[in-house]
Write a structure and sequence with these properties.
Elements lengths: L4 H29 L4 H5 L10 H21 L1 E2 L10 H16 L3 H6 L4 E6 L2 E7 H26 L6 H5 L9
Parallel strand pairs: 1-2
Antiparallel strand pairs: 2-3
Helix pairs in contact: 1-4, 1-6, 3-4, 3-6
Length: 176
């Protein structure tokens, strides 16, 4: 069985985005139960020189939905809008990413596998990829990095999260 670009990228992103939505729920509940302001977690960082939790969640949207859009357009630049500032907006980013991924067909993604994608910052092209390599060697590792960092920030702040919270709904073989 060969693995298509779609199969290698979209279902795994959806799995982690579903998990991230649950992580957000647990973070929000923990804040309420412990009398924390939402910003205490949403703006939390592992280290002073790292970007906050909200940025990590936003980056999961960037490196899934916007990555596919970049392959369509032939260009990708870091997204520079401010990260969400409340739980509802964080959930909305995750929902937006899931919607965009679900709207991408396997045929469409396969047809873009060899598209040229320029990665640029401030109009300067820094790297040029083909679509498949952009998604699998740039966006997918970034996606997992930011999902893991978001999980780690909340875990470090005491939110009761475990490995299954990070993994989310796995694609297991049905009994029988």
């Amino acid at each position: 069985m060969s693995l298509s670009l779609f199969d290698a990228f979209v279902p795994s992103c959806l799995q982690i985005l579903d998990a991230l939505d649950g992580v957000l729920d647990k973070g929000e509940a923990f804040a309420k139960e412990n009398g924390l302001a939402a910003a205490d977690l949403i703006q939390a960082r592992l280290y002073d020189n790292m970007l906050p939790f909200a940025y990590q969640v936003k980056s999961c949207w960037v490196h899934s939905a916007l990555a596919i859009e970049g392959v369509r357009a032939g260009t990708f630049s870091p997204e520079s809008s401010e990260p969400p500032v409340d739980w509802a907006s964080l959930h909305a980013k995750v929902a937006e990413a899931r919607t965009a991924l679900k709207a991408t067909s396997a045929d469409e993604l396969e047809s873009m596998a060899d598209n040229v994608v320029d990665f640029s910052i401030n109009g300067k092209v820094l790297m040029t990829f083909v679509g498949q390599d952009f998604l699998l060697s740039f966006s997918q590792p970034n996606f997992y990095f930011h999902a893991t960092t978001a999980y780690d920030i909340l875990r470090e702040r005491g939110v009761p999260l475990g490995k299954l919270d990070y993994l989310g709904p796995m694609r297991i073989k049905a009994p029988g």
